[in-house]
Amino acid sequence: MSAADPAAGAAMSGPAPAAGAAGALLARDSAWKPWEFALWALALAAFFLLPSKLLLLNDIAILALFALSIDLLLGYAGIVSLGHAAFFGFGAYAAGLFAIHVSGDPLLGLVAAGLSAGVLGFATSFLVLRGSDLTRLMITLGVALMLLEAANRFSGLTGGADGLTGVTMAPVLGLFEFDLWGRTSYLYSLGVLFVLFVLARLLVHSPFGLSLRAIKGNRLRASAIGIAPNRRLVAIYTIAALYAGVAGALLAQTTQFVSLDVLSFQRSADGLLVLVIGGAGYLYGGLVGAIAFKLMHEVISGLTAQYWLFWLGLILVILVLVGRDRLLAGPRGLLRAALARLPRRRAP
Amino acid sequence: MTALASPAATTTAQPILQTIGLEKRFGGLVATSDVSLSLRPGARHALIGPNGAGKTTFINLLTGVLAPSAGKILLDGTDITTERPHARVRRGLSRTFQINQLFAELTLLETVAIAIAERERKGWSMFRPLAAQTAVIDEAAELLARFRLADVMAKRTAELPYGRQRLLEIALAIAAKPRVLLLDEPAAGVPEDGRREILDIVRGLPASVTVLLIEHDMDLVFSFADRISVLVAGGLLVEGTVAEVSGDPRVRTAYLGEDADG
Fold it and tell me: Best interface-test mutation with B: which of A5, A26, A72, A197 has the largest number of B CBs within 10 A?
């Protein structure tokens, strides 16, 4: 995105900027880039290339969807949350209970869980409309804590600390049985992630998406151009909750089990962490972050089983202090130089 | 403060914007005191006054950023006193800010396009890319060209020098196609050569747009306004034509005498 800007600026510096050029400018910003196709193709190829890692890949897809939902909030609307697991967990329990009591059909369950989490998101959105970031952090944290204890307390319904068992899923679309190796799971989760990603991508390039960025950038001015900020924030909070609920439902359905930790603070924090690692505000941060997060986990915990969080913490501190752009500037410059194959264009 | 002005007397048509006994208190401080002002349609009205006279507070009351402690605001006869800021914009009351209030991370094109999309009630459109809404984009590009900002429309606003951001500030208010435009010191912070450009744009506004200009700079006011109201210590001191106001001894004492920094 930012890489396209200077080029676009240069293109527009001509003396006769036609209106058509302006449309082309925005169209180019919102067009699918080659690297995006490559990324999704790679995600699909992983199914064939890494048949022994499908359960891990499924985890990554679910985490990516969860982080994507946080990105919609944080990256576009500027709402910080430390309790997004509330919706993830609510969706997970909703999907589990739906499978037990109503129907084992995965897609129906997904819709039910997404809508349930969306309703919860709508109801609690009004709490985060006002106040500072700190207020929002505390409110989102508080809501998640309440939900966690409620799930613990009503163990008759949720299974409490023992977890919700007895979730059995019917085949996806009546055709694809869930298997032990995660073949169906990964493709199912990846498919859902892809569909929701495409929708989110449409959303952020729409006038609605732009209005969110306007509110994030300057709320006073946003209302001075006729935007009702609160309604927009309620809408995106509800949508983000729905996304998180679907992510939770995917976990419940593919593992056929729900434990209390779907609502834990750790899960909220992980989601935020993943997004910060991957970068907020360009939609791919959740995906990139989820891959990086899980890979780091695999690699580092392979080296030092107990202390992987230490290294994760260190990486996080460096990332935030030094800044992703500066960290990536070196490799990016080298990459560009390599691609251009021009001796002059080597990074300074 | 006793206001000697009798604004309603000279108008025949229904005022497009009117305040009745508008008042704003912050604790013990009276920032706006019993201000009754009315603007006829198409007016070029200036509101002047020394620093701290409450000009910006008055604008914030008109636009709904602040709620008045007492009094009423009527837009074209409709009571908008309790309406939210965005609702007033939709009714055709638009403003600029004394200090730029822009979207630093959006490009100029995005900034103006979103304002136009909102005016056209397309702000809730979620699944149709802005890029595909050609009428909006074309109008945005045209407006930016009119403000001589077309060459930088792909740049982020933050990359622009302040003077040119000032033009965007005004363009953004105009994108709403207001019936009443409130300009809060439009040339503030702009170097001398840029002021002319801004004044030209303000002068070139269509006659159908009613303009209330809040200004500190008397040259700008005298060359633009057909009527002037003088605000001192939150209350209206005088209202009249340029000649009446500039000749009024009270204005000289209260305002012109202090105009050292203008």
Answer: A26
Q: What average pLDDT does the structure give for chain B?
A: 88
Reply yes or no on whether the pLDDT at A125 is more than 90: yes
Q: CB A207 to CB B130 under 8 A?
A: yes
Q: pLDDT by residue (tens digit) across B134-174?
A: 999 999 999 999 998 999 999 999 999 988 899 999 999 99
Q: Is B199 near chain A, with CB under 8 Å?
A: no
Question: According to the 3-state scheme, what is the secondary structure of chain B?
Answer: CCCCCCHHHHCCCCCCEEEEEEEEEECCEEEEEEEEEEECCCCEEEEECCCCCCHHHHHHHHHCCCCCCEEEEEECCEECCCCCHHHHHHCCEEECCCCCCCCCCCEHHHHHHHHHHHHCCCCCCCCCCHHHCHHHHHHHHHHHHHCCCHHHCCCEHHHCCHHHHHHHHHHHHHHCCCCEEEEECCCCCCCHHHHHHHHHHHHCCCCCCEEEEEECCHHHHHHHCCEEEEEECCEEEEEECHHHHHHCHHHHHHCHHHHHHC
Q: How far is B181 from chain A (nearest CA, A)?
A: 12
Inter-chain contact A27–B141, Cβ cutoff 8 Å?
no
User: CATH 3.40.50.300 occupies which residues in chain B?
Assistant: 1-92+178-262
A220/B contact by beta carbon, under 8 A = yes
Determine the pLDDT at residue B79.
95
3-class SS of residue A263: helix
Chain A 23-42, residues with CB within 8 Å of chain B CB atoms: 23, 25-27, 29-30
Burial of A234: CB neighbours in 10 Å, binned 0-12, 13-18, 19+ = middle
Given a cut of 90, whether residue A2 has pLDDT beyond it is: no
Q: How confident is the model at residue B190 (pLDDT cuts 50, 70, 90)?
A: confident
Nearest-by-Cβ selection for A8 from B84, B137, B154: B154
Question: B70-104, pLDDT tens digit by residue?
Answer: 999 999 999 999 999 999 999 999 999 999 999 99
Task: Say which of A23, A211, A223 has its CB closest to residue B85.
Answer: A223
Start-to-end CA span in chain B (Å): 25
**Which of A25, A198, A225 is most worth mutating to test chain B (most B CB atoms within 10 A of its CB)?**
A225
Residue with tokens 């006729």: A226
Which chain B residues touch A8 with a CB distance below 8 Å?
154
Nearest neighbour of A206 by CB, restricted to B104, B110, B125 = B125
A214 has a chain B CB within 8 A of its CB: yes
Q: Is B118 on the interface with A (CB under 8 A)?
A: yes
Which comes out higher in pLDDT, residue A151 or B219?
A: A151
**pTM of structure:** 0.87
Interval A308-338: pLDDT, tens: 888 888 888 888 888 777 677 666 667 676 6
Going by pLDDT thresholds of 50, 70 and 90, the confidence category of residue A13 is very low
Assess B146–A contact: CB distance below 8 Å, yes or no: no
Give pLDDT, residue B1: 40
Give CATH for domain B1-92+178-262. Answer: 3.40.50.300
